[in-house]
């Protein structure tokens, strides 16, 4: 999801398509907008400070910009290599840090930085290990916390910090278990809640001590789920895949008690989908898969806290 002109923006990334749509919350309707110049899958989309949207990666090294004022896409600078299943983080200065991913079976530890002012990608310091299906979280001090993922065909529990001022990565405290396809949510107090990824275990990262501590365990094991920070400070986790199949259940994490409680289930089983917190506090979930990789979905639904 990307918020544009008070609408919400999606790119289909289940099959390799180039279509895009806008969701208008007041009317609850979807409208077709401009198509990307190339079909994409497992790419990233980032809202820039100028309001445009940067889409990067997939099975190509190209990147494109979406202009919400015109509804059109234009090519921008090319990445230095092909990557998908990477992360993209908008830094405080407006630049975008792209880390990890895979290229034709080669897991990547390489990292690039996109400058919207020049539309140029620059290679920066690499991560300590290759990672795909990891998470990247911009902390309050503008450092980027990268955790977990698959490091060359093996899930990992390590974490590292990128300092954009010094252009260096440093290892930080390791998680209490390995994770892949998990979620990482920064809480109002600056800590990061990491949940799921082949299990229901959750833990908190404290940037002040650079340590991880176990917190309440979810009611369901989950991978490829979504996590959304609600306006009341709680975290909504929904969908995903347990040991087998796809689920529709949802639960809430309360940072004040560190306890998970079940909440209303979605109307459909979903994994590999998106979730967006709207201006009225509701959460829009859209698309995804409901039967592994064999059944993609075009439905959307709203959660009312």
UniProtKB/TrEMBL annotation:
SUPFAM superfamilies: Kelch motif, Quinoprotein alcohol dehydrogenase-like. The keyword Cytoplasm does not apply. The keyword Repeat applies. PROSITE patterns: PROKAR_LIPOPROTEIN. It comes from the Eukaryota. Keywords: Kelch repeat, Repeat. Gene3D superfamilies: Galactose oxidase/kelch, beta-propeller (2.130.10.80), Kelch-type beta propeller (2.120.10.80). InterPro entries: Gal_Oxidase_central_sf (IPR037293), Kelch-typ_b-propeller (IPR015915), Kelch_1 (IPR006652), Quinoprotein_ADH-like_sf (IPR011047). This is Uncharacterized protein. It comes from Adineta steineri.
